[in-house]
Design a protein that fits this description.
The chain has 345 residues and is of the alpha+beta class. It contains seven helices and 17 strands. It has a four-stranded mixed beta sheet. Strands 9-8-12-11 form a four-stranded mixed beta sheet. It has a four-stranded antiparallel beta sheet with strand order 14-15-16-17, with no helix packed on it. The longest helix has 18 residues.
Length: 345
Amino acid sequence: MKFVNKKFPMSLLILVMALLIFRNSLPAQESGPASRLALSDIQIQTTASLRVKIANPIKKYRYSRADEANIKKIENDILAQLHQNGYYLSKIDSFRVTEMGRQQAVLYLYVSPGLQFKLGTAEFIMPDSLTSRFSGQLAEIAKNYRLRPYNEGLQKQMFHDVIALFENSGYPLCRITTEGFTLDSLAANEQAVNLRLRVDPGQLVKLQGLRLPAKSGINPRYLERTFGFRSGDIYREKEIGRYRKLLSRQDFIRSAGRPRIVMGEDSLYYLSMNYEENTSTSLDGVVGYIPAPANDPAQSGYFTGLLNIGLLNFFGTGRRLDVNWQKPDRFSEEFRVKYREPFVL
């Protein structure tokens, strides 16, 4: 069997596959006044062999009432499992509730799994100038997902891998859409979904510089040296993530958000940094004066106390200066100075 659609959005692909074979579910069947019984077990029987195992939902529904509402929930749980494994045409043929005594019952479900849909091939359409550069890498991505049950999670992950490839090659504005698909028979009860995907890479983005918050006290040159950033660098998603980590490690940064691309008035791209700074100066301590003893006027008074001064991000260049003074008594005094230079050379 083969179905071809030349223009078809991916969001409706699953719906079309479900409509290929239209089946009406058989009416539900119950034996006895089941609504007063509590479920003690669920038995699932299928009309054809399955290549996946259905997790029995009895733990979730044990001792629940065997009424119509709970049975419908159980059916939906089982069908959701089958859909996740590519069985989009599955249905519950019928069910039967059997009383086992002591107000308990066993629910028997009869399931028709239908065809299993798996990812077949993925053809990528892109500008000719990029085909030779990316075709091999895109083929490897598609190969990693081939013959796996086709579901929403697989689609999202494959699209994510494709977008990540372009984002780390200077194309952060890349988009991918489904242009069409075909269905081919693989084996008994298996269908291959062959996708035709269009990749629109967008414009190649070269970053001309960093844009800092308006009230930032950081020298842009310091951040450029910290990141290893150069004007004209191609945008790479992994590098942008590294920038955020490096910012978070600075002791004068309170919080760092993800940088984002902005276009300047010159129609060039810049990287806008997003962060909050800590207070750059800290001062704490206590100072007191001890007067001369009343019974010994020959002695003089003296100052005592503790004083700590910290200058974070000195001159906005990541430098740090710490000064510590301590005088516990008349005869001892301690004075310490610590200086940090982020770039020795």
